[in-house]
Amino acid sequence: MSGTVAYEPLLLRNIDKPGSGTIDVYLAGGGYEGLRRTLKEMTPEKLLEEVKASGLRGRGGAGFPTGMKWSFLPKTKDKPRYLCVNADESEPGTFKDRLLIERDPHLVLEGIILASFAIESRRAFFYIRGEFHKGARRFQKAVEEATARGFLGKNILGSGFDLDVTVYRGAGAYICGEETALLESLEGKRGLPRIKPPFPAIVGLYGCPTIINNVETLANVTLIAERGAAWYAGLGRPPKNTGPKLYCVSGHVKRPGVYEAALGIPLMELINDRAGGLLRADRKLKAVIPGGSSMRILPAAKCDVLMDFDSLVAAGSMLGSAGVVVMDDSTCMVGALLNLAAFYAHESCGQCTPCREGTGWFVKILTRLERGEGRAEDVDLLIDVASRVEGNTICPFGEAIAWPIDSYVKTFRAEFEEHVTRRGCPIGAGAFALQAASVTGH
Amino acid sequence: MAEPTQPAAPSAQPALPPAGPDEVALTIDGRPLVVKKGTTVLQAAEKVGLLVPHYCYHPGLSVAGNCRMCLVEIEKMPKLQIGCATQAAQGMVVRTANERVARTRQGIMEFLLINHPLDCPICDQAGECRLQQYEAAYGAGFSRFNEEKVHAAKRESLGRHVMFDGERCIKCTRCIRFCDEVSRSHELGLLERGDHAIIGTFPGKPLDNPYSGNTVDICPVGALTLKEFRFKARVWFLKDVPSVCAGCARGCNVNLATYRNQIHRMTPRFNAEVNEYWICDPGRLSYQALEERPRLAAPLVRRGSSGAAGPHLSAGGESAGAASAVTASAGSAPADAWSGALDAAAALLRGVAQRSGGQTLAALVSARLSVEDLFMARRVLHETIGISRVAVPAHEEGDDDRLLIRRDKTPNGRGAALVGVGAPHAGRVKEILEDLAAGRVRGLVVVGEDPIGDGLLTEAARRNLDALVVVDWWRSPTAEAADVALPSCGYGEAEGVFVNFEGRAQRVRAAIRPAGQADPVWRILAALGNRFGLSGDYPSASRLFDEVASSTPVFAGLSYRALGEPGVRLKEA
Fold first, then answer.
1. Where residue B573 falls among pLDDT bands split at 50, 70, 90?
2. What is the pTM of this model?
3. Going from the N-terminus, what domains does chain A have, and what CATH number goes with each?
4. ipTM strictly over 0.90?
5. Cβ contact (<8 Å) for A388 and B79?
6. What are the DSSP E strand ranges found in B305-388?
7. Among A190, A351, A364, whose Cβ lies nearest the Cβ of B66?
């Protein structure tokens, strides 16, 4: 074990308690005290200042400062404002929001009420991934419990502040996690990302100013209201990487799961100490995706990195959704990339040209490579086509496929070339990926 | 080449012209310009003559921003921006053709074509296809795609007029947006995802709105084709002649596409004041009547009618069977046929006037005729021959809709009123026909109308006529029953002016040569008038219109040249 201090969980403090998820357990742990105090002592502006001062950055993927996002709302109040909670957690390798929703929904709900108070929204929508049946049920129950206890509805805790929360289940599309596609879907339309600008803060849900926040982000707002911005800003690696973070560790480790640590935990500590190290002692670490499938892959040699927003950018990747996928040396990088490419080809919404056409093309090239039908020029072709997708699409989906393609091929170029020269996979580990690609119809 | 200057700013730009309060000044490819606030980069570039290539953008539809062909570089913005959605801003520096933009466009072209069938040799769009145009201008000329393409339906009927080829489609969604925003009928949607995404109709709701053909016009590729035009002609053989639709009182501006003296299709021609970019389906297909109906190709004179009128022409007699009508010209030269038929018509009318009195002559004149035709109808029928009762039948059907379609199906009702023939008036027509049934009208001249076919004039009543002279382009039931039928030009065969329901005078053009011996109505009427002492020289429709302009105050100062392509809104009208 390394020398880190034992970490006292904040976001996951309730999940293992008997009866976790019920309002009684939540209240017994001091729940809704932050809300009570805030409504009593603070104005919306003051709470917004607190969140700004905390340094909280969005936990959905981009790491944008939450308080600043809220402050983009127009000053005029001629239209209603909406808070939309992005609970469409679909990024491969990511499963942190699901845990919060299922096991401590009130921690999230309290954050929703606080955020709505700060941005002066009277209506919040909880857009939850369609496949999260259990989560949707539990969250709906939490909304009902909170309403019954006066934390939601009219005149919350006598403050004069009203809020209703509507739980809305998505219909099963990765793209609906993109915030403007989410809005379209919520409006009952096909989930296609919108052109930006205008940004949702100006023209969002039903044409009204809208803030979209991730589930984990809102759980952090609860913590800030509970213990104050100054306390929060001291966690992690201030000033720009503050607070606790949930990391989803999967792949070739002994104990895959969600681990909470302050922002900036070393990646190797996360893998070795928290997740129990590599699954098999006779294997070596080959590569890690640090932030969900859309982020650039890090080879083992670059894994000596701190898990926070800025450190990972410096290392050439991003924290993203903090979905940490660990690959040992039994992994075929062509097969791994094919598996991802098949996912993206299946999930591309089909709206804009580079993504619609590029994602399918990647699958076809990678399938041939994995089958031993690759051509020498395919390796550079992958990189070049990715460069023509990146930056040219309506939404960040373009980068989400271009970055893995570019980073896998460039980082493991020799392995890709070997697939051509040896007419097949030298590792023999691509069968699953080939199957995945064929299932998606590519 | 390390240049120690700071990034972006150094590009020496020409000084910006001053911009007003509602304007912004910017430079595009080094050209300074001032545009109104809210103008997009794409539109601004257009103003200085620069094409920013695009598929999904259409000026008559909302911005979708999905084709990505119009990506341009804007200083201080890290990513390329789409010209169709990015608004011009003060001091903006735009580059639409540098290496970075060119490389991106080349990439977009490659993406658009990897799953495209490249079946140009059998594609109706070939020759007017944006994929072809832009590949030639911006593409690499070859593809690095060596895989099996995605396959989709090659001919799927979306509705009565529109056929869909799913493989050619580039998902620009212009057709979907048209149905959502213009026709507001919402038949089309994008189905499936990724490169399997496909345009389709919703179950049980085919693309059958009255404007469906516009989706074909705005489809930038060969995905949507018009059933009535498919495989009819290669577009590079077609010549577009600007004209005006005669289907109703709107007067939508159109192009008549002709090849080998035949109209092959009719497409909308932009006119901001009339129809913008659109036309309705009935209008689009209205030219087909020219091919479908039996043509009156030569003058017809009923046997026994050619000489001086006699009592044998009255009720009954040999006029009972239309089959007995023969061309007076059988075997003779067209000029003789015309002159014989006109002489016969003149003699018949004169005979009625002499026997029964001039007040027993009447005329029905169509508001489907041009201003020139109607002007001549008044001059000849009313002023020269002395027919006091001239009426214009009304043709109404359905209701005005919120887009283009008018209940009034005559294209020149306003024109008829303005030249003094009178507006379409069902009541006046009815009076004449009642008098005819009662035997008080003995001679009738019908120009461009079909009272028998329209059920206004019965066979029994027709027997009361001692003279029925018809001028029309087809062998209508009325023409078949005529004593003399004179062949006129059909739609697209003669030029003239229509005045639409809003009082806009617009030019109709001759796109093809008249069939057989057909002549413009005004010339036929002038020739008839000559036989009643009409003097004057009418060499062309244009000169005739000059006379209309000089003698009719509302048209004062106008000429074909002055009307131009978009027409002129008449002041008083």
1. low
2. 0.93
3. 23-233 (3.40.50.11540), 241-328 (3.10.20.600), 333-439 (1.20.1440.230)
4. yes
5. no
6. 325-326, 361-365
7. A351
